[in-house]
Amino acid sequence: MSAIRIFLAVLVHMTSLHAQNADAVKHKFVGTWKLISYVREEIPSGIKTETMGPHPSGYLIYTAGGRMMAIFTSTDRHKPAVADPTPRESEELYKSLVSYTGTYTVQADKIIHHVDVSWNETWTGTEQTRFYKFDGDRLSLATTPSLDPVEGKMSVRTLVWERVK
Asked: What domains appear along the chain, each with residue ranges and CATH number?
């Protein structure tokens, strides 16, 4: 067997192993996750805050077919006094919500959300990169250093999710 054929056989084998590993990691994401915490660490001060309060609400869903959806809200959302909220109530409701959907891909230590619909049109058509860590039934997703979409502060936001059984 020539050196080129051996090289190609090894390359095909390694590519196959990499694809199998990526599929195994992707499979770990599949399911429904409940939001446990959302902490923002400001850059460069390092100040940490529970951006959406101590008990934010929300869910994150990954499908085996490669789609994802996230929706989460702050702890202290207030119900409007009537069905048609005032402009101020509408603003507060908007600021206490994050929601988007799209497809996703998994690479090494990150997952990339390819946003096709979002609560904030500036996210539609973008890629949202998250660095992930699994710890039992918990999934930690940390953003790249970027502007917080709610308060506009340069930061890293880390969301911890727990698998729904």
From this structure: 30-163 (2.40.128.280)
